[in-house]
Design a protein that fits this description.
The complex is a heterodimer of chains A (113) and B (118). In chain A, 0% of the residues lie in helices and 49% in strands. With 113 residues, chain A is mainly beta. Chain B has 118 residues and is mainly β. The termini of chain B are far apart. Classes of the chains: A mainly beta (113), B mainly beta (118).
């Protein structure tokens, strides 16, 4: 049981490049989320999914796209990276209630030059 | 709208002393969850403790306890007998109940950096 995993752990991009971050969970959770964390701040919600084939916008969705083609995977895409997207990205998954917030991935550190 | 406030950007505590990290929240929901997470320098988010809004007893997990005062809308974390390994960033967070087609979402405070002195 690996919990929540994220790929890659680190990445450096140039402005305008694209990339996809992969989040995978093996707990059969319905809900999955992408957050970003900027220096000195808590996490802010980018996008989330309530089940396979569904996605919804969070607090800071601009510049990102997501897809949930399989229940266990949640992908975060940057089509044209900008320096403002330099951040640490966390994926999380939970049960379909407000008590299940225990499972975060290890994070992906992204730098956009 | 929901809001989490952590007013202590940083704290220094002597090893073996107890420490209280403050957290206040604002919500119009009757059902919600309150959480504390630890983020060490390695960067991962580690779940520490959970309190449901209808739980009458304060939550405890080993050396961690959550001092839940619903009328004051506060959810302070108490760490007993602090250890050097407790030095980290601590985040208070709150979740809302899921809607018909929306997920339960969690919002975070800005964090408190705790440093334990030997």
């Amino acid at each position: 049981n690996a919990g929540v995993t994220q790929t890659p752990k680190f990445r450096v991009l140039k402005t305008g490049q694209s990339m996809t971050l992969l989040c995978a969970q093996d707990m059969n959770h319905e809900y999955m989320y992408w957050y970003r964390q900027d220096p000195g701040m808590g996490l802010r919600l980018i996008h989330y999914s309530v089940g396979e084939g569904t996605t919804a916008k969070g607090e800071v969705p601009d510049g990102y796209n997501v897809s949930r083609l399989k229940k266990q995977n949640f992908l975060l895409g940057l089509e044209s990276a900008a320096p403002s997207q330099t951040s640490v990205y966390f994926c999380a998954s939970s049960y379909s209630n407000f008590a299940g917030w225990k499972f975060f991935g290890p994070g992906t550190r992204l730098t956009v030059l | 709208a929901q809001k989490i406030t952590q007013t202590q950007p940083g704290m220094f505590v002597q090893e073996k002393e107890a420490v209280t990290l403050d957290c206040t929240y604002d919500t119009s929901d009757q059902s919600y969850g309150l959480f504390w997470y630890k983020q060490p320098s390695s960067g991962e988010m580690i779940f520490l403790i959970y309190q449901g809004s209808y739980d009458e007893q304060n939550a405890t997990e080993g050396r961690y306890s959550l001092n839940f005062q619903k009328a004051r809308k506060s959810a302070n974390l108490v760490i007993s007998a602090s250890q050097l390994g407790d030095s980290a960033m601590y985040f208070c967070a709150m979740s809302d109940p899921p809607g018909y087609s929306s997920a339960s979402k969690i919002i975070f405070g800005s964090g408190t950096r705790l440093s334990i002195r030997p």
